[in-house]
């Protein structure tokens, strides 16, 4: 009896797993191609009043790390390279 429940839940588990990977890829957790950086950085910097410097540093970080965190603020833990790149003073280099 317990085995039949496992076989019924297996397709659901696989569906959730596939959806998780596709969502992670669409939000920048996966490696980007350099040509994808413009669109991702444009969205990342869309909520700031300092758009020009934000775009400059975001594009620089994206070209090095091939990753841009999802959203317009925070979520840097999803891109370790982007998150850990610091200025000489120790502040965050990437927006």
TrEMBL record:
For this UniProt record, give its keywords in alphabetical order, as a comma-separated list.
Signal
Q: Where is the signal peptide?
A: 1-26
Does the keyword section mention Signal?
A: yes
What Pfam families does the record tag this protein with? Answer: GASA
The record's InterPro entries line, in alphabetical order, gives: GASA
UniProt xrefs under PANTHER family: EXTENSIN, PROLINE-RICH PROTEIN, GIBBERELLIN-REGULATED PROTEIN 5
Q: Which family does it belong to?
A: Belongs to the GASA family.
Put simply, this protein is called: Gibberellin regulated protein
